[in-house]
Amino acid sequence: MFEKVLVANRGEIAIRVMRTLKEMGIVSVGVYSEADRDAPHVGEADEAHLLGPPVPAESYLSVDKLLETANGAGAEAIHPGYGFLAENAGFAAACEDAGVTFIGPPASAIEAMGSKTRARELMAEAGVPIVPGTTSPVESVADAKKEAKKIGYPVACKAAGGGGGKGFRVAATEEELEDAFTGASREGEKFFSDPTVYLERYLDDPRHVEVQVLADSHGNVVHLGERDCSIQRRHQKLIEESPAPHVDDEMRERIGRIATDAAAAVSYRSAGTVEGLQTGDDYFFLEMNTRVQVEHCVTEMVAGIDIVREQLLIAAGEELSVRQEDVEFRGHAIECRINAEAAHKNFAPAPGEITSYREPAGPGVRVDSGVVAGSDVTPLYDPLIAKLIAWDTDRERATARMLRALGEYEIGGLVTLVPFHRAILATDQWRNAETCRDLVGDKKWLKSLTPKEPTKPADGEEADGPLTERTYRVEVDGRLHSVKVIGTAGANANPGSAAGLRRPPRRERAATAGAGNGASETLVSPIQGTVLNVAVQKGDEVQDGALICVVEAMKMENEITAHRAGKVTELSVAEGGSVAAGDVIAKIE
Q: Can you give the pLDDT at residue 487?
Protein backbone atom coordinates (compact mmCIF):
# COMPACT_ATOMS: atom_id res chain seq x y z
CA MET A 1 0.00 0.00 0.00
CA PHE A 2 1.07 3.60 -0.58
CA GLU A 3 2.75 5.59 2.16
CA LYS A 4 2.04 9.05 0.73
CA VAL A 5 -0.65 10.24 -1.73
CA LEU A 6 -1.10 13.66 -3.32
CA VAL A 7 -4.71 14.83 -3.68
CA ALA A 8 -4.93 16.90 -6.86
CA ASN A 9 -8.08 18.79 -5.99
CA ARG A 10 -9.69 21.25 -3.60
CA GLY A 11 -12.81 21.71 -1.50
CA GLU A 12 -15.02 18.96 -0.17
CA ILE A 13 -13.76 16.16 -2.40
CA ALA A 14 -10.15 16.80 -1.34
CA ILE A 15 -11.19 16.58 2.31
CA ARG A 16 -13.27 13.47 1.59
CA VAL A 17 -10.24 11.68 0.09
CA MET A 18 -7.91 12.85 2.85
CA ARG A 19 -10.17 11.41 5.52
CA THR A 20 -9.95 7.93 4.02
CA LEU A 21 -6.18 8.32 3.63
CA LYS A 22 -5.94 9.15 7.33
CA GLU A 23 -8.02 6.09 8.28
CA MET A 24 -5.68 3.92 6.19
CA GLY A 25 -2.54 5.40 7.75
CA ILE A 26 -1.46 7.09 4.50
CA VAL A 27 0.12 10.56 4.54
CA SER A 28 -1.92 13.08 2.52
CA VAL A 29 -0.31 15.78 0.41
CA GLY A 30 -2.58 18.73 -0.33
CA VAL A 31 -2.21 21.35 -3.02
CA TYR A 32 -3.69 24.83 -3.24
CA SER A 33 -3.84 27.95 -5.35
CA GLU A 34 -3.10 31.42 -4.02
CA ALA A 35 -6.86 31.93 -3.59
CA ASP A 36 -7.10 28.81 -1.40
CA ARG A 37 -4.31 29.48 1.10
CA ASP A 38 -6.76 29.46 4.01
CA ALA A 39 -9.14 26.84 2.60
CA PRO A 40 -10.14 23.97 4.94
CA HIS A 41 -8.69 21.29 2.65
CA VAL A 42 -5.25 22.83 3.18
CA GLY A 43 -5.55 22.38 6.92
CA GLU A 44 -6.88 18.85 6.52
CA ALA A 45 -3.77 17.73 4.60
CA ASP A 46 -0.77 16.34 6.46
CA GLU A 47 1.33 18.64 4.31
CA ALA A 48 0.32 21.20 1.68
CA HIS A 49 2.06 22.83 -1.27
CA LEU A 50 1.31 25.98 -3.27
CA LEU A 51 0.68 25.33 -6.97
CA GLY A 52 0.32 28.86 -8.31
CA PRO A 53 -2.15 31.65 -9.12
CA PRO A 54 -5.92 31.32 -8.59
CA VAL A 55 -6.70 30.66 -12.25
CA PRO A 56 -7.15 26.86 -12.57
CA ALA A 57 -5.02 26.64 -15.72
CA GLU A 58 -2.04 27.86 -13.70
CA SER A 59 -2.68 25.74 -10.61
CA TYR A 60 -5.13 22.82 -10.35
CA LEU A 61 -5.00 22.11 -14.09
CA SER A 62 -1.22 22.35 -14.43
CA VAL A 63 0.04 18.80 -15.02
CA ASP A 64 3.68 19.85 -14.79
CA LYS A 65 3.22 21.60 -11.43
CA LEU A 66 1.26 18.70 -9.97
CA LEU A 67 3.87 16.13 -10.98
CA GLU A 68 6.69 18.39 -9.80
CA THR A 69 4.94 18.74 -6.43
CA ALA A 70 4.31 15.01 -6.15
CA ASN A 71 7.97 14.28 -6.91
CA GLY A 72 9.22 16.88 -4.45
CA ALA A 73 6.92 15.63 -1.70
CA GLY A 74 7.77 11.98 -2.30
CA ALA A 75 4.17 11.03 -3.11
CA GLU A 76 3.86 7.62 -4.74
CA ALA A 77 0.37 8.20 -6.10
CA ILE A 78 -2.09 10.95 -7.07
CA HIS A 79 -5.83 10.93 -6.42
CA PRO A 80 -7.56 13.39 -8.79
CA GLY A 81 -10.98 13.55 -7.07
CA TYR A 82 -13.57 14.71 -9.59
CA GLY A 83 -13.50 17.64 -12.00
CA PHE A 84 -10.24 19.33 -13.01
CA LEU A 85 -7.96 16.52 -14.33
CA ALA A 86 -9.93 13.53 -13.04
CA GLU A 87 -10.97 12.37 -16.53
CA ASN A 88 -7.95 13.62 -18.41
CA ALA A 89 -6.26 10.72 -20.22
CA GLY A 90 -3.16 12.83 -20.82
CA PHE A 91 -2.75 13.40 -17.09
CA ALA A 92 -3.14 9.69 -16.34
CA ALA A 93 -0.51 8.89 -18.98
CA ALA A 94 1.83 11.60 -17.67
CA CYS A 95 1.57 10.13 -14.16
CA GLU A 96 2.52 6.71 -15.53
CA ASP A 97 5.47 8.18 -17.43
CA ALA A 98 6.63 9.93 -14.26
CA GLY A 99 6.43 6.73 -12.21
CA VAL A 100 3.52 8.03 -10.12
CA THR A 101 0.42 5.84 -9.71
CA PHE A 102 -2.77 7.46 -10.97
CA ILE A 103 -5.61 6.48 -8.65
CA GLY A 104 -8.15 5.89 -11.36
CA PRO A 105 -8.59 3.90 -14.55
CA PRO A 106 -5.86 3.43 -17.17
CA ALA A 107 -5.45 6.21 -19.71
CA SER A 108 -6.82 3.92 -22.44
CA ALA A 109 -10.13 3.49 -20.59
CA ILE A 110 -10.42 7.23 -19.91
CA GLU A 111 -9.75 7.94 -23.56
CA ALA A 112 -12.25 5.34 -24.76
CA MET A 113 -15.04 6.48 -22.45
CA GLY A 114 -14.06 10.16 -22.35
CA SER A 115 -15.06 10.55 -25.97
CA LYS A 116 -18.81 10.08 -25.93
CA THR A 117 -18.86 9.12 -29.62
CA ARG A 118 -16.22 6.43 -29.13
CA ALA A 119 -17.99 5.19 -25.99
CA ARG A 120 -21.30 4.89 -27.84
CA GLU A 121 -19.58 2.99 -30.63
CA LEU A 122 -17.92 0.60 -28.16
CA MET A 123 -21.14 0.02 -26.25
CA ALA A 124 -23.10 -0.68 -29.43
CA GLU A 125 -20.46 -3.23 -30.45
CA ALA A 126 -20.68 -4.83 -26.98
CA GLY A 127 -24.45 -5.16 -27.27
CA VAL A 128 -25.19 -2.47 -24.69
CA PRO A 129 -28.36 -0.47 -25.61
CA ILE A 130 -27.62 3.17 -26.50
CA VAL A 131 -29.85 6.18 -27.03
CA PRO A 132 -30.62 6.44 -30.78
CA GLY A 133 -28.31 8.91 -32.51
CA THR A 134 -24.89 9.21 -34.14
CA THR A 135 -21.88 7.15 -33.09
CA SER A 136 -19.43 9.38 -34.94
CA PRO A 137 -18.78 13.14 -34.78
CA VAL A 138 -21.03 15.51 -36.70
CA GLU A 139 -18.80 17.90 -38.63
CA SER A 140 -21.07 20.87 -39.38
CA VAL A 141 -24.47 22.45 -38.86
CA ALA A 142 -25.48 21.26 -42.34
CA ASP A 143 -24.55 17.67 -41.43
CA ALA A 144 -26.38 18.07 -38.11
CA LYS A 145 -29.57 19.04 -39.92
CA LYS A 146 -29.36 15.91 -42.09
CA GLU A 147 -28.79 13.64 -39.08
CA ALA A 148 -31.52 15.34 -37.05
CA LYS A 149 -34.07 14.54 -39.74
CA LYS A 150 -33.15 10.85 -39.39
CA ILE A 151 -33.22 10.92 -35.58
CA GLY A 152 -36.30 13.11 -35.21
CA TYR A 153 -36.79 16.23 -33.09
CA PRO A 154 -36.16 17.14 -30.36
CA VAL A 155 -32.45 16.31 -30.58
CA ALA A 156 -29.64 16.77 -28.07
CA CYS A 157 -26.38 18.28 -29.31
CA LYS A 158 -23.62 16.97 -27.06
CA ALA A 159 -19.92 17.70 -26.82
CA ALA A 160 -17.96 14.47 -27.35
CA GLY A 161 -15.72 15.24 -24.39
CA GLY A 162 -18.43 16.85 -22.27
CA GLY A 163 -19.71 16.06 -18.82
CA GLY A 164 -21.33 17.62 -15.79
CA GLY A 165 -24.00 19.19 -17.97
CA LYS A 166 -21.49 21.19 -19.99
CA GLY A 167 -21.56 20.93 -23.77
CA PHE A 168 -25.23 19.84 -23.78
CA ARG A 169 -27.84 21.77 -25.77
CA VAL A 170 -31.29 20.77 -26.96
CA ALA A 171 -32.98 21.77 -30.23
CA ALA A 172 -36.74 21.27 -30.36
CA THR A 173 -36.91 22.34 -34.02
CA GLU A 174 -34.61 22.79 -37.01
CA GLU A 175 -34.66 26.56 -36.39
CA GLU A 176 -33.02 26.00 -32.98
CA LEU A 177 -30.43 23.51 -34.22
CA GLU A 178 -27.69 25.93 -35.25
CA ASP A 179 -27.61 27.70 -31.88
CA ALA A 180 -27.67 24.37 -30.01
CA PHE A 181 -24.92 22.86 -32.16
CA THR A 182 -22.58 25.87 -31.95
CA GLY A 183 -23.26 26.30 -28.23
CA ALA A 184 -22.39 22.67 -27.48
CA SER A 185 -19.26 22.94 -29.60
CA ARG A 186 -18.18 26.15 -27.88
CA GLU A 187 -18.57 24.66 -24.40
CA GLY A 188 -16.77 21.49 -25.49
CA GLU A 189 -13.82 23.54 -26.68
CA LYS A 190 -13.77 25.76 -23.60
CA PHE A 191 -14.15 23.14 -20.87
CA PHE A 192 -12.71 20.01 -22.50
CA SER A 193 -10.49 21.30 -25.34
CA ASP A 194 -12.63 19.33 -27.80
CA PRO A 195 -15.22 21.06 -30.03
CA THR A 196 -16.50 17.75 -31.45
CA VAL A 197 -20.29 17.32 -31.28
CA TYR A 198 -22.61 14.35 -31.80
CA LEU A 199 -26.41 14.07 -31.81
CA GLU A 200 -28.82 11.96 -29.79
CA ARG A 201 -32.57 11.71 -29.67
CA TYR A 202 -33.74 13.86 -26.78
CA LEU A 203 -35.99 11.65 -24.70
CA ASP A 204 -39.09 13.26 -23.18
CA ASP A 205 -38.80 13.46 -19.39
CA PRO A 206 -36.62 10.37 -18.86
CA ARG A 207 -35.21 9.43 -15.49
CA HIS A 208 -31.44 9.78 -15.12
CA VAL A 209 -30.34 6.52 -13.52
CA GLU A 210 -26.69 5.56 -13.09
CA VAL A 211 -24.90 2.47 -11.78
CA GLN A 212 -21.79 2.51 -9.59
CA VAL A 213 -19.14 -0.03 -10.62
CA LEU A 214 -15.83 -1.17 -9.15
CA ALA A 215 -13.24 -3.12 -11.14
CA ASP A 216 -9.79 -4.36 -10.13
CA SER A 217 -6.80 -5.60 -12.13
CA HIS A 218 -7.60 -9.24 -11.28
CA GLY A 219 -10.71 -9.47 -13.45
CA ASN A 220 -13.24 -8.71 -10.71
CA VAL A 221 -16.07 -6.31 -11.62
CA VAL A 222 -18.99 -5.56 -9.31
CA HIS A 223 -21.77 -3.01 -9.19
CA LEU A 224 -23.04 -1.28 -6.06
CA GLY A 225 -26.57 -0.61 -7.24
CA GLU A 226 -28.02 2.47 -8.85
CA ARG A 227 -28.63 6.14 -8.12
CA ASP A 228 -31.43 8.32 -9.46
CA CYS A 229 -30.17 11.79 -10.42
CA SER A 230 -33.21 13.08 -12.30
CA ILE A 231 -33.58 16.43 -10.52
CA GLN A 232 -31.27 18.71 -12.47
CA ARG A 233 -30.89 22.27 -13.69
CA ARG A 234 -29.18 22.90 -17.01
CA HIS A 235 -28.49 19.16 -17.13
CA GLN A 236 -26.47 19.39 -13.92
CA LYS A 237 -27.56 17.39 -10.90
CA LEU A 238 -29.11 18.93 -7.80
CA ILE A 239 -30.53 15.99 -5.82
CA GLU A 240 -29.55 12.32 -5.96
CA GLU A 241 -30.94 9.26 -4.22
CA SER A 242 -30.32 5.54 -3.89
CA PRO A 243 -31.99 3.21 -4.57
CA ALA A 244 -33.81 4.66 -7.57
CA PRO A 245 -37.55 4.86 -6.80
CA HIS A 246 -38.65 3.39 -10.14
CA VAL A 247 -36.14 0.51 -10.35
CA ASP A 248 -37.28 -2.91 -9.17
CA ASP A 249 -35.13 -5.95 -8.45
CA GLU A 250 -35.38 -7.27 -12.02
CA MET A 251 -34.31 -3.96 -13.54
CA ARG A 252 -31.56 -3.53 -10.93
CA GLU A 253 -30.06 -6.85 -11.97
CA ARG A 254 -30.42 -5.98 -15.67
CA ILE A 255 -28.86 -2.51 -15.52
CA GLY A 256 -26.18 -3.80 -13.17
CA ARG A 257 -25.24 -6.33 -15.83
CA ILE A 258 -25.23 -3.58 -18.48
CA ALA A 259 -22.86 -1.54 -16.31
CA THR A 260 -20.44 -4.37 -15.58
CA ASP A 261 -20.45 -5.38 -19.27
CA ALA A 262 -19.66 -1.77 -20.21
CA ALA A 263 -16.73 -1.68 -17.77
CA ALA A 264 -15.40 -5.01 -19.01
CA ALA A 265 -15.62 -3.82 -22.63
CA VAL A 266 -12.91 -1.23 -22.02
CA SER A 267 -10.82 -3.25 -19.52
CA TYR A 268 -11.85 -0.80 -16.83
CA ARG A 269 -10.10 -0.51 -13.47
CA SER A 270 -11.05 1.62 -10.42
CA ALA A 271 -14.40 3.19 -9.48
CA GLY A 272 -16.61 4.37 -12.30
CA THR A 273 -20.21 5.19 -13.08
CA VAL A 274 -22.28 4.04 -16.03
CA GLU A 275 -24.97 6.64 -16.64
CA GLY A 276 -28.21 5.85 -18.40
CA LEU A 277 -31.70 7.08 -19.21
CA GLN A 278 -34.72 5.16 -17.98
CA THR A 279 -38.07 5.45 -19.75
CA GLY A 280 -40.52 2.94 -18.31
CA ASP A 281 -38.90 -0.49 -18.59
CA ASP A 282 -36.35 0.68 -21.18
CA TYR A 283 -32.81 1.63 -20.19
CA PHE A 284 -30.25 3.22 -22.52
CA PHE A 285 -26.51 3.70 -22.00
CA LEU A 286 -25.70 7.41 -21.89
CA GLU A 287 -22.03 7.71 -20.94
CA MET A 288 -19.44 6.48 -18.46
CA ASN A 289 -17.79 8.73 -15.90
CA THR A 290 -14.30 7.42 -15.28
CA ARG A 291 -13.89 8.81 -11.77
CA VAL A 292 -15.54 8.99 -8.38
CA GLN A 293 -18.85 10.86 -8.69
CA VAL A 294 -20.02 13.82 -6.64
CA GLU A 295 -22.97 11.69 -5.55
CA HIS A 296 -20.99 8.58 -4.57
CA CYS A 297 -22.00 9.27 -0.96
CA VAL A 298 -25.56 7.97 -1.31
CA THR A 299 -24.22 4.65 -2.60
CA GLU A 300 -21.80 4.45 0.33
CA MET A 301 -24.67 5.02 2.75
CA VAL A 302 -26.87 2.22 1.39
CA ALA A 303 -24.12 -0.26 0.45
CA GLY A 304 -21.84 0.36 3.44
CA ILE A 305 -18.71 0.44 1.24
CA ASP A 306 -16.06 3.19 1.21
CA ILE A 307 -15.64 3.77 -2.54
CA VAL A 308 -12.50 5.89 -2.14
CA ARG A 309 -10.89 3.13 -0.07
CA GLU A 310 -11.67 0.65 -2.86
CA GLN A 311 -10.04 3.02 -5.36
CA LEU A 312 -6.87 3.05 -3.30
CA LEU A 313 -6.81 -0.74 -2.92
CA ILE A 314 -7.32 -1.23 -6.66
CA ALA A 315 -4.60 1.30 -7.56
CA ALA A 316 -2.19 -0.52 -5.22
CA GLY A 317 -2.82 -3.74 -7.16
CA GLU A 318 -5.00 -5.44 -4.57
CA GLU A 319 -8.28 -7.23 -5.18
CA LEU A 320 -11.67 -5.74 -4.41
CA SER A 321 -12.65 -6.26 -0.80
CA VAL A 322 -16.15 -7.37 -1.84
CA ARG A 323 -17.76 -9.80 -4.29
CA GLN A 324 -21.09 -9.22 -6.00
CA GLU A 325 -22.87 -11.75 -3.81
CA ASP A 326 -21.60 -9.89 -0.72
CA VAL A 327 -23.15 -6.54 -1.70
CA GLU A 328 -26.29 -5.74 0.31
CA PHE A 329 -28.41 -2.61 0.16
CA ARG A 330 -29.99 -1.20 3.29
CA GLY A 331 -32.40 1.70 3.56
CA HIS A 332 -32.59 4.82 1.42
CA ALA A 333 -30.21 7.78 1.06
CA ILE A 334 -30.74 11.25 -0.41
CA GLU A 335 -28.11 13.86 -1.27
CA CYS A 336 -28.75 17.58 -1.71
CA ARG A 337 -26.05 19.66 -3.32
CA ILE A 338 -25.60 22.86 -1.35
CA ASN A 339 -24.49 25.28 -4.05
CA ALA A 340 -23.86 29.03 -3.84
CA GLU A 341 -26.67 29.75 -6.27
CA ALA A 342 -29.83 31.83 -6.30
CA ALA A 343 -32.63 29.49 -7.37
CA HIS A 344 -35.06 32.44 -7.51
CA LYS A 345 -32.82 33.99 -10.17
CA ASN A 346 -32.85 30.87 -12.33
CA PHE A 347 -29.92 29.36 -10.41
CA ALA A 348 -27.57 32.28 -11.01
CA PRO A 349 -24.18 31.87 -9.27
CA ALA A 350 -23.98 33.70 -5.94
CA PRO A 351 -20.34 33.83 -4.81
CA GLY A 352 -19.25 35.66 -1.68
CA GLU A 353 -17.93 35.25 1.85
CA ILE A 354 -19.51 32.86 4.33
CA THR A 355 -19.97 34.96 7.45
CA SER A 356 -21.31 32.21 9.69
CA TYR A 357 -21.62 28.47 9.32
CA ARG A 358 -23.29 25.65 11.26
CA GLU A 359 -23.78 22.15 9.86
CA PRO A 360 -26.69 19.86 10.76
CA ALA A 361 -26.05 16.66 12.66
CA GLY A 362 -27.85 13.76 14.30
CA PRO A 363 -28.68 10.17 13.32
CA GLY A 364 -28.31 9.29 9.67
CA VAL A 365 -26.96 12.71 8.63
CA ARG A 366 -23.68 13.18 6.78
CA VAL A 367 -22.14 16.45 5.57
CA ASP A 368 -19.23 16.51 3.12
CA SER A 369 -18.18 20.15 3.02
CA GLY A 370 -15.18 22.24 2.08
CA VAL A 371 -15.96 25.48 3.90
CA VAL A 372 -16.07 27.10 7.33
CA ALA A 373 -17.14 30.50 8.59
CA GLY A 374 -14.93 33.04 6.82
CA SER A 375 -14.48 30.94 3.68
CA ASP A 376 -14.65 32.82 0.40
CA VAL A 377 -16.72 31.15 -2.33
CA THR A 378 -14.97 32.54 -5.39
CA PRO A 379 -16.35 32.79 -8.95
CA LEU A 380 -13.20 31.00 -10.15
CA TYR A 381 -14.35 27.56 -9.05
CA ASP A 382 -17.42 25.35 -8.84
CA PRO A 383 -20.34 26.75 -6.76
CA LEU A 384 -20.60 23.56 -4.66
CA ILE A 385 -20.21 24.43 -0.98
CA ALA A 386 -21.15 21.11 0.55
CA LYS A 387 -23.16 17.92 0.10
CA LEU A 388 -25.83 17.05 2.64
CA ILE A 389 -26.74 13.36 2.82
CA ALA A 390 -29.56 11.83 4.84
CA TRP A 391 -30.16 8.08 5.35
CA ASP A 392 -33.11 6.23 6.84
CA THR A 393 -34.95 2.94 6.44
CA ASP A 394 -37.08 4.06 3.48
CA ARG A 395 -37.59 7.01 1.11
CA GLU A 396 -40.32 8.67 3.14
CA ARG A 397 -38.31 8.63 6.35
CA ALA A 398 -35.12 9.70 4.55
CA THR A 399 -37.04 12.68 3.14
CA ALA A 400 -38.26 13.66 6.61
CA ARG A 401 -34.73 13.39 7.95
CA MET A 402 -33.36 15.48 5.09
CA LEU A 403 -35.95 18.20 5.70
CA ARG A 404 -35.00 18.25 9.37
CA ALA A 405 -31.30 18.52 8.47
CA LEU A 406 -31.91 21.28 5.91
CA GLY A 407 -33.77 23.21 8.60
CA GLU A 408 -30.70 23.01 10.84
CA TYR A 409 -28.24 24.17 8.17
CA GLU A 410 -27.06 27.75 8.74
CA ILE A 411 -24.94 29.50 6.10
CA GLY A 412 -24.66 33.25 6.66
CA GLY A 413 -23.69 35.85 4.09
CA LEU A 414 -24.51 33.76 1.01
CA VAL A 415 -27.52 32.79 -1.02
CA THR A 416 -27.57 28.99 -1.33
CA LEU A 417 -29.86 26.24 -2.58
CA VAL A 418 -31.02 25.27 0.92
CA PRO A 419 -34.42 27.01 0.46
CA PHE A 420 -34.84 25.34 -2.93
CA HIS A 421 -34.19 21.89 -1.48
CA ARG A 422 -36.59 22.46 1.41
CA ALA A 423 -39.29 23.60 -1.00
CA ILE A 424 -38.95 20.84 -3.57
CA LEU A 425 -38.75 18.01 -1.03
CA ALA A 426 -42.08 19.17 0.37
CA THR A 427 -43.93 18.92 -2.97
CA ASP A 428 -46.28 16.25 -4.27
CA GLN A 429 -43.95 15.84 -7.27
CA TRP A 430 -41.11 14.70 -5.01
CA ARG A 431 -43.46 12.59 -2.91
CA ASN A 432 -44.61 10.83 -6.10
CA ALA A 433 -40.97 10.36 -7.24
CA GLU A 434 -41.41 12.49 -10.36
CA THR A 435 -38.48 14.13 -12.16
CA CYS A 436 -39.67 17.58 -10.98
CA ARG A 437 -38.70 19.14 -14.31
CA ASP A 438 -41.95 21.10 -14.28
CA LEU A 439 -40.89 22.84 -11.06
CA VAL A 440 -37.21 23.37 -11.87
CA GLY A 441 -38.18 24.92 -15.21
CA ASP A 442 -40.99 27.05 -13.76
CA LYS A 443 -39.58 30.55 -13.27
CA LYS A 444 -42.69 31.66 -11.39
CA TRP A 445 -42.27 28.82 -8.89
CA LEU A 446 -38.56 29.56 -8.55
CA LYS A 447 -39.35 33.24 -8.01
CA SER A 448 -41.50 32.24 -5.02
CA LEU A 449 -38.26 31.19 -3.32
CA THR A 450 -36.99 34.79 -3.23
CA PRO A 451 -35.54 35.47 0.25
CA LYS A 452 -37.42 38.01 2.33
CA GLU A 453 -35.64 41.34 2.38
CA PRO A 454 -34.88 43.01 5.72
CA THR A 455 -36.86 46.11 6.62
CA LYS A 456 -35.50 49.20 4.86
CA PRO A 457 -35.06 52.65 6.43
CA ALA A 458 -37.73 55.24 5.80
CA ASP A 459 -37.46 57.39 2.67
CA GLY A 460 -34.55 59.79 2.90
CA GLU A 461 -33.08 57.91 5.85
CA GLU A 462 -29.85 55.99 5.46
CA ALA A 463 -28.75 53.26 7.84
CA ASP A 464 -25.71 54.03 9.94
CA GLY A 465 -24.14 50.70 9.18
CA PRO A 466 -24.78 47.28 7.68
CA LEU A 467 -28.07 45.61 8.55
CA THR A 468 -27.57 42.56 10.71
CA GLU A 469 -30.01 39.79 11.52
CA ARG A 470 -29.75 38.49 15.09
CA THR A 471 -31.75 35.95 17.04
CA TYR A 472 -32.29 36.39 20.78
CA ARG A 473 -33.80 33.99 23.31
CA VAL A 474 -36.34 35.78 25.49
CA GLU A 475 -38.20 34.32 28.45
CA VAL A 476 -41.78 35.52 28.92
CA ASP A 477 -44.00 34.17 31.72
CA GLY A 478 -41.71 31.22 32.21
CA ARG A 479 -41.68 30.25 28.52
CA LEU A 480 -38.66 30.66 26.25
CA HIS A 481 -39.20 32.39 22.87
CA SER A 482 -36.86 33.01 19.92
CA VAL A 483 -37.04 36.60 18.65
CA LYS A 484 -35.43 37.68 15.37
CA VAL A 485 -34.21 41.30 15.19
CA ILE A 486 -33.05 42.98 12.01
CA GLY A 487 -31.29 46.33 12.33
CA THR A 488 -28.05 48.25 12.37
CA ALA A 489 -25.38 46.65 14.51
CA GLY A 490 -24.18 48.86 17.34
CA ALA A 491 -20.53 49.22 18.25
CA ASN A 492 -20.74 46.54 20.93
CA ALA A 493 -23.39 44.35 19.29
CA ASN A 494 -22.87 40.64 19.05
CA PRO A 495 -23.30 39.89 15.33
CA GLY A 496 -24.91 36.52 16.04
CA SER A 497 -25.41 33.62 13.70
CA ALA A 498 -26.30 35.63 10.61
CA ALA A 499 -23.70 38.35 10.79
CA GLY A 500 -22.58 39.94 7.62
CA LEU A 501 -25.97 40.30 5.93
CA ARG A 502 -25.22 43.48 4.07
CA ARG A 503 -27.53 45.99 2.46
CA PRO A 504 -25.93 47.59 -0.62
CA PRO A 505 -25.29 51.32 -0.64
CA ARG A 506 -28.09 53.50 -2.03
CA ARG A 507 -26.72 53.79 -5.58
CA GLU A 508 -26.18 50.01 -5.74
CA ARG A 509 -29.74 49.35 -4.63
CA ALA A 510 -31.13 51.57 -7.33
CA ALA A 511 -29.17 49.82 -10.07
CA THR A 512 -30.00 46.34 -8.82
CA ALA A 513 -33.68 47.12 -8.58
CA GLY A 514 -33.59 48.32 -12.15
CA ALA A 515 -32.43 44.93 -13.39
CA GLY A 516 -35.75 43.35 -12.59
CA ASN A 517 -38.06 46.34 -12.83
CA GLY A 518 -39.84 47.03 -16.09
CA ALA A 519 -40.01 50.73 -15.18
CA SER A 520 -36.21 51.12 -15.27
CA GLU A 521 -34.19 51.37 -18.47
CA THR A 522 -31.00 49.92 -16.99
CA LEU A 523 -30.15 46.23 -17.18
CA VAL A 524 -27.34 45.26 -14.80
CA SER A 525 -25.41 42.03 -14.38
CA PRO A 526 -26.46 39.93 -11.38
CA ILE A 527 -23.11 38.11 -11.43
CA GLN A 528 -19.39 38.50 -12.00
CA GLY A 529 -17.95 36.65 -14.96
CA THR A 530 -16.73 36.56 -18.54
CA VAL A 531 -18.94 37.59 -21.45
CA LEU A 532 -19.05 34.65 -23.86
CA ASN A 533 -21.63 35.92 -26.31
CA VAL A 534 -23.53 39.14 -27.04
CA ALA A 535 -26.79 38.48 -28.85
CA VAL A 536 -27.84 42.06 -29.66
CA GLN A 537 -26.44 45.26 -31.09
CA LYS A 538 -27.01 48.87 -30.18
CA GLY A 539 -30.20 50.03 -31.86
CA ASP A 540 -31.90 46.61 -31.86
CA GLU A 541 -35.53 46.31 -30.82
CA VAL A 542 -36.00 43.52 -28.25
CA GLN A 543 -38.89 41.86 -26.47
CA ASP A 544 -39.17 41.29 -22.75
CA GLY A 545 -37.15 38.13 -21.97
CA ALA A 546 -35.02 38.30 -25.13
CA LEU A 547 -31.42 37.08 -24.81
CA ILE A 548 -28.99 39.96 -24.40
CA CYS A 549 -25.76 38.15 -23.56
CA VAL A 550 -24.25 35.01 -22.03
CA VAL A 551 -21.96 35.34 -19.00
CA GLU A 552 -19.83 32.49 -17.72
CA ALA A 553 -19.45 32.37 -13.94
CA MET A 554 -18.50 29.53 -11.60
CA LYS A 555 -18.15 27.10 -14.53
CA MET A 556 -21.68 27.78 -15.79
CA GLU A 557 -23.07 29.72 -18.73
CA ASN A 558 -25.77 32.16 -17.59
CA GLU A 559 -28.19 33.85 -19.97
CA ILE A 560 -28.88 37.52 -19.21
CA THR A 561 -32.24 38.47 -20.69
CA ALA A 562 -34.06 41.75 -21.33
CA HIS A 563 -36.10 42.95 -18.37
CA ARG A 564 -38.44 44.92 -20.62
CA ALA A 565 -39.35 45.43 -24.27
CA GLY A 566 -37.82 48.36 -26.11
CA LYS A 567 -34.80 49.64 -28.03
CA VAL A 568 -31.21 48.94 -26.97
CA THR A 569 -29.85 52.48 -26.70
CA GLU A 570 -26.63 51.56 -24.88
CA LEU A 571 -24.59 48.34 -24.85
CA SER A 572 -21.72 48.18 -22.37
CA VAL A 573 -20.41 44.63 -22.85
CA ALA A 574 -18.40 42.86 -25.54
CA GLU A 575 -17.53 39.22 -26.19
CA GLY A 576 -14.43 38.17 -24.27
CA GLY A 577 -14.74 41.01 -21.79
CA SER A 578 -15.43 40.76 -18.08
CA VAL A 579 -18.35 42.05 -16.07
CA ALA A 580 -18.85 42.52 -12.34
CA ALA A 581 -22.05 42.11 -10.37
CA GLY A 582 -23.95 45.39 -10.61
CA ASP A 583 -22.23 46.54 -13.81
CA VAL A 584 -24.51 48.02 -16.45
CA ILE A 585 -24.97 45.65 -19.39
CA ALA A 586 -27.38 47.69 -21.48
CA LYS A 587 -30.04 50.36 -21.49
CA ILE A 588 -33.37 49.48 -23.04
CA GLU A 589 -35.75 52.40 -23.67
A: 64
